[in-house]
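Morning. Coffee machine broken again, so started the prediction first thing and wrote up yesterday's gels while waiting. Chain of 299 residues, entered below exactly as on the submission form.
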Amino acid sequence: MTLGITVPDESNGGAMSGLASGGAGSPRTRGTADSVMQECLRLQLGAEPRGRVAQLFGRSPLHPDARSWYRGAVGELRVAGALSRLDPAFTVLHAVPTASGDHERPGDHGDPNLGLDHSATDHVVIGPPGIFSLNAKSHAGRRIRVAGNRLLVNGRKSDQLDHCLYETGRASTLFSSIAGTPVEVTPVVVVVDPTSVTRKSPQVDILEVEQVPQWFATLPRQLSDDTIAHFSTIAERSGTWRSRAEADDDTMRHTQRFERLQREVNGARRRARVWMLGGVAATVIIAAAVLAGIVSQSG
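Came back before lunch.
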């Protein structure tokens, strides 16, 4: 079933006029994972400069306290990359401040996967299948198990599903209040680089990042084109979410600094890998030489 709503006439400069492309303070202009990158970079200021020997051997440039924030930011950027491959019929907004600003979400305690802006939803997607609130999580090397309304990470209860449901409920309330009719928003959790994902009647869809584009492509249409355009316009208004939602003037600078840090981290990993492989090769050569010497002596 395709849903439709009455779209306000904007031809005479109505409340929605001129907002479809997003202004300087619209959520569309908020950088992906910006708050997580900022905290990573802030903690990284405490890292001691690496000497030439440390750089040569590929020692990580990351401060120990910045590592989890770095992984969280990289995970969100990967999800944003997956969302960028959606059909042009979709509108995608990042780091959307869906909470009122007066409350923290359940269980918020500065989780690096959540960012400092506890009230921000990682991604909001609007398109033919409906409206979705995506909560992105980096779980590199961890086992994920979802059963009903419980999400376990390496066997331990996580609050991430609760966060996702809270953000989704807030987004639904805001859309409904502006549209003047109940608006359903679908919660989705996206996990990045887990070793495994086990699902048993999950209350919320749990996707691995690689599954995101195809999952959206296979969903049935629920919204008309006019309804999509109307809700996209609503979503791009900063006032839809909360008054303090403003684009960070330093977003580009943060992104450039983080990209530079990524290059340093990736370069260090490559050098460390080369040394590791070189050590393995040297060990094999030495062992072969010793074995050859033993054989020659016995002969």
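Helices lie at 34-44, 52-56, 67-83, 160-179, 212-218, 225-235, 238-241, 251-298. Going to sketch it on the whiteboard this afternoon.
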